[in-house]
Amino acid sequence: MNKRNHDIVFEHTGYRREDFSVCLGCKICASVCTVNDLSLNVNPQDILISLFMGEEVSADHGLVRYCTNCYRCTHACPWGIRIPEVIRAVRESLAMESTFEKAFKGSLKIWGRVYEPYIFLRAGMFLVKEGYLRYMPKWTEYMSFHLPHKVKSLNSLSDSKGRT
Amino acid sequence: MDYAYYPGCSLTGSARKLDKGVRKLFKKLGHTLKDIPDWNCCGAFEYGDRKELVKLSGENLQKAKDVASDVIAPCPACSRNLKEANEDGGLRVYNPLDLFDKEFLSGLTMKRDLKGQVFTPYYGCVLMRPKETAIPNSNVMEDFVTALGGDVAGEKIKDRCCGGNQFFINKWATEKLSRMILEKSKGTILVFCPLCQMALKTFSTNEKIIYFTDLILYASGEENKL
User: Fold this and answer.
1) pTM above 0.90, yes or no
2) How high is the pLDDT of residue A107?
């Protein structure tokens, strides 16, 4: 993670480097972090300190890989730092897009909406390989099928980054 | 009252049941949901750039302006993103759970009680956090159940994470987190988030998981079974 990656994180989140200097090191974020329910022993504070110090954040850091966007850290943090948004920006700066995310953004590029049958087709190999197909009967319980609708007016995707 | 209605992507597909329930319920309460024309995806959680998310949802708010000044978005990710984009406060953006208090639901005549039945209201993350976009009453489902004589369980897991966000990335993580919630729940699990519903349903064995709207419709005599 180089300086450019750091800049992307600050640009994307709207935080400034000095905003992370307020972290008190109380570790309350670590005490409530959902990723620690997975026995991964992570401390969100590590990421904030690394960004503040201009140090590398590894793509293999447990939080970068497994953050669930639950905002328990933000809720508990005395400063309300939106750590999940920082993690999302870190992932984007490191180009850590999953197959599903690529399919999601691909659908938005075509229709401006998520068209679920497209996602399943585009991520088909991944879903087969990773054993998702056996769950499909359970997913259909509350589902209905429809044809895609193409959004006519959508300006924000015309200049955005990170899409397929 | 007229509301601008933002169904969002999942409510047109995998969570169509929630869409049907919300539409039916608002109609029964005498409100009109007017679909926002040509709405686009809110961006869900898939964009690392906050500005990009706000822009996507901001377009939806622009499209809503000609429809009504009160916007309803049932999917918690959508309502959260729309609330975030509503920076100037030009519109009022609601998740239906923001509104479902005793007074709002007083227009319904309850035809069934819930005596002898146990429910685990499960809110998950997005409805509860961050506080700027959270629902105002974090006991809205409990209040409804207890008012009709039902029993409530699962207080400790109601705002824990199902891991749905990792479902198509690291399935094992979602499985572990969802199973933890399923094991600590009792009776029928009430949900409002399509992603939570999908994650819990996927890893459930015999647990019944329903949308809260369907419980309200059942109690008001609209649906015959849960």
Assistant:
1) yes
2) 96
B180 and A139 within 8 Å at the Cβ level: the answer is no
pLDDT in tens, B148-171: 999 999 999 999 999 999 999 999
CA distance B57 to B46: 13
* Residue-range definition of the domain harbouring residue B15: 2-94
Determine which of B50, B83, B122 to mutate to test the interface with A (most A C-beta atoms within 10 Å). B50
A75 has a chain B CB within 8 A of its CB: yes
Residue A159 pLDDT: 53
Tell which A residues from 39 to 68 touch B, by Cβ distance under 8 Å. 65-66, 68
Number of domains comprising chain B = 2
Asked if A86 contacts A8 with a C-beta cutoff of 8 angstroms, the reply is no
- Residue in A94, A68, A93 with CA at minimum distance from that of residue A7: A93
On the question of pLDDT at A160 being above 50, the answer is: no
CATH number of the domain that B28 lies in? 3.40.50
Q: Which of B203, B191, B165 is nearest to A132 (CA)?
A: B203
In a domain, B226, yes or no: no
Same domain for B111 and B190?
yes
Residue B46: what pLDDT? 82
Is residue B202 within 8 A of residue B90, CB to CB? The reply is: no
ipTM: 0.93
